[in-house]
Amino acid sequence: MQDLLTKFANLTIQSDFIFKKVMSRKRICKHLLEELLQIEIADINYIEAEKTIDPNYTSHGIRLDIIVADDKNTHYNLEMQVKNNKNPNTNTHVLPKRSRYYQALLDFDLLQAGQPYDLLPPTYIIFICIFDFFEKGNYVYTFKKRCLENLELELPDEATTMLLNTKGSHGDISKDLKSFYDYVNNHIVTTDFTKQIDDEISYLKLDTKVRREYMLMEARLLDERREGIAEGKDIGFAEGKDVGLVEGEAIGIA
């Protein structure tokens, strides 16, 4: 229990748990989107924090950190990405295909049965990465679909994927967005915006309900990991293999 309390006290915005809590504050999430996209947003509404999308029991479900919609019905999915994970079987990075899957399931969830495709709203899948996936030094990498035969032609499907690189060194970003990067990387408060974030985290850590929620979440995750390890061993024994799951790798929702 004491180890969990210490872990909770040391959580930063890089933690999914804290990131979701902070971005659940409308003024902070709205301002971050405005600074990133250089637009004015009248208001945002939360579709659901940590929304689980699972179209059917045979599909691979996902938990989305933060989904919001603005006053123009543009939908944004914000994700904190701390590790540049690889699939151990293929030795390929999982982030590109993960972004594709997130986009597909987000669209699936936004379109009701029988509705025409043109009612799909504009979407942004935004990964806040604590690493430079492409190693080009950009603060932001923005992706839309373009024609290979004529790069001036863009497919107007209104789907955008953005990989934010908090370790970046060049590009045109606002002062507040750069200060947000610095805060994510080193927990340094340099602007009023990052002070708001830091104050919010301090407040969260004093909230007994938030602390209890974290404890219950960690206990549940530990149970899932143990079940995953046990299931992996059972599969290995049944197939005559040594599955060799490492503790912390659970079978199920990513």
Structure explained in plain terms:
The chain is α/β, with parallel strands linked by helices. It is built from seven helices and eight strands. It has a six-stranded mixed β-sheet with strand order 1-2-3-6-8-7. Strand 2 and strand 3 form a beta hairpin. It starts with a helix and ends in a 15-residue tail after the last helix. Mean pLDDT is 86; it is low at 49-61 and 242-254.
Element layout with pairings:
Elements: H1 2-9, H2 16-23, H3 26-37, E1 44-53, E2 62-70, E3 75-81, E4 86-87, E5 92-93, H4 95-110, E6 123-129, E7 140-143, E8 159-165, H5 175-186, H6 192-206, H7 208-239
Parallel strand pairs: 3-6, 6-8
Antiparallel strand pairs: 1-2, 2-3, 4-5, 7-8
Give the H and E element order: HHHEEEEEHEEEHHH
* Total strand segments: 8
Q: Could you report the average pLDDT, rounded to the nearest whole number?
A: 86
Strand order across the largest sheet: 1-2-3-6-8-7
**Number of DSSP helical runs:** 7
Low-confidence stretches: 49-61, 242-254
